[in-house]
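#struct-help
A.M.: can someone run this one for me? Single chain, 124 residues.
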Amino acid sequence: MDKKLFRKGDIVVIGTALLVAAAIFLLRFVGNEKKLVAEIRVDGEVIETIDLSAIAEAVVISPETEPKVTIKAENGAIYFEHADCPDKLCISSGKLTRKGDTAVCLPAKTVITVLGADVDAVTY
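D.P.: on it. Structure tokens below:
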């Protein structure tokens, strides 16, 4: 009995999975996203949109929520700076610096999402 560790079909499946993983990595971490926009939502409603690439000095946002949260936006980053909620998981999510990053404070019903600003021929 001559048993092989991998068959031809196994190698194809493993190779395909590695290619998909590499593509996801490249799209996520190697993108040249220069202009970032952060969107702050409270209870599903957009309360503020901030261009993170245009901030000269830090901006502090304190939305009307219960429990209270404080959001700080800097050049290229935004994060929960302070929260009165008991678990403070939103603070531990850290700085959001890439397109697609999201931080949520569930007790305060507050969501921060970083979006890439679309550049088209008219804007460019």
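A.M.: thanks! Residues 42 and 87 are 19 Å apart (CA to CA).
D.P.: also worth noting: Residues 119-124 have pLDDT under 50 and may be disordered.
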